[in-house]
Amino acid sequence: MIAVVRGIDRYDGRAAFTTWAYRVVTNACLDELRRRKRRPAPTLPEIEAEAVGGPPRVDDQVATRLTIDAALDRLPVEFRTVVILRDQLGLDYAEIAEAVGIPPGTVRSRIARGRAALADLVGRPDPGNHDPAPDVLAGHADPAEPPGGSPP
After folding, report:
1. pTM reported for the whole predicted model
2. Residue 95's closest CA among 17, 14, 13, 42?
3. Which CATH number is 2-7+15-39+57-137 given?
4. Engineering a disulfide at 144: which of 76, 109, 111, 124 sits with its beta carbon 3.0 to 4.6 angstroms away?
């Protein structure tokens, strides 16, 4: 949010303020992720299976969160961005499309593939999506389009 305050003089009114603010925040987050990649990341301990019958312990919740964050870090930026905007910030597809500058159909595709890859990375099956996560992690810029450009 500091980036929004610092950049308010650059808001020109061509888009809704919220769209502009989401874009500024998204760019700040992407910059932070790039900075984190330059630093070594600590390894995470293996998560034990949750005990049945009781509420999860705080340390289990923290470990789960760290595992999810580590898995998010492994996703390509184009998938990580839309998954975070949808699942953590609660934006709808149209808002994400406008903030990121891609069509809503591409947003839906990237969210589905990003979630599938995330589920594979944390070791939980995603019953709603059978797309293989390795395709996402292989570095395809947009899995909705075949390598080499858009479909004819």
Report:
1. 0.49
2. 17
3. 1.10.10.10
4. 109
**Pick from 96, 87, 105: nearest CA to 144:** 105
The secondary structure of residue 95, as a DSSP letter, is: H
What count of Cα atoms within 13 Å lies in the side-chain half-sphere of residue 151? 5
Tell me the C-alpha distance between 31 and 113, whole Å: 23
Cα gap 115→10, rounded to integer Å: 34
Per-residue pLDDT of 94-152, as tens digits, reads 989 988 999 999 999 999 999 999 888 888 654 454 444 445 555 544 444 444 444 44
